[in-house]
């Protein structure tokens, strides 16, 4: 391991008081070759700082580094992917065409007032998993290996997933339902729209009241059978979300808040089956339904839409902080 600047200064100090390389290495817990190298560096340059390096620049700021450190100290059993998602560090790759479409979209909709977005329903799907994994990485400092918060209880192996479909709007969360087993197709999506989405959203917007709908650019959402279904329901105006734009879909933040609440492991002794995973995901969703906190979250995300669009414009269509 590279010695710190304090260790490097100690090497010089111990040299000046007559200690041998072996004594210095033993006292500082570093190898003799490292001691010799830094003594020679100091003799040649009178400098103990690192030389400038070429290569890839840091991907995170010092503020983000601190946020990551706090996150793993708070939950040592978290995954790097979850840290990336919660700290909003992951960004999709954007091509020139993606950037151009994002900018065009932002310019088209940036003048829409917040009240426009209050009449938009957001749809999405997400797969939730049981927390049983074959191996768990633990983020910890040296000397804390057997602290209680750094130990994972033994449990059954295997990982079970369940895909769910849901919708949200400015006043809160709508319905969340199990997509079912097997491959998700356009035909399945149409059935969800017909049997779950439309009846539940009509409780808020009675027919023939029109409303806007926003969904991502999944191939399933763009299947011919899905397009035909929307043509048969002209009262639903589908907004054209540009590709690679999770920052323009407020549902991503709802999922993140929900997943955070559903991240606790299943109780010890419980059988991790698919139904248990579904119920664990439904619990935070139902907790938000009709509550001030859930309504405040969705309304706040809706009111942020103009700001998100302006951020895309300021970035020239590139990444934003959202």
TrEMBL record:
<feature type="domain" description="Tc1-like transposase DDE">
    <location>
        <begin position="120"/>
        <end position="264"/>
    </location>
</feature>
<feature type="compositionally biased region" description="Basic and acidic residues">
    <location>
        <begin position="42"/>
        <end position="53"/>
    </location>
</feature>
<dbReference type="InterPro" id="IPR009057">
    <property type="entry name" value="Homeodomain-like_sf"/>
</dbReference>
<protein>
    <recommendedName>
        <fullName>Tc1-like transposase DDE domain-containing protein</fullName>
    </recommendedName>
</protein>
<dbReference type="InterPro" id="IPR052338">
    <property type="entry name" value="Transposase_5"/>
</dbReference>
<dbReference type="GO" id="GO:0005634">
    <property type="term" value="C:nucleus"/>
</dbReference>
<feature type="region of interest" description="Disordered">
    <location>
        <begin position="42"/>
        <end position="65"/>
    </location>
</feature>
<dbReference type="InterPro" id="IPR038717">
    <property type="entry name" value="Tc1-like_DDE_dom"/>
</dbReference>
<dbReference type="Pfam" id="PF13358">
    <property type="entry name" value="DDE_3"/>
</dbReference>
<dbReference type="InterPro" id="IPR036397">
    <property type="entry name" value="RNaseH_sf"/>
</dbReference>
<dbReference type="GO" id="GO:0003676">
    <property type="term" value="F:nucleic acid binding"/>
</dbReference>
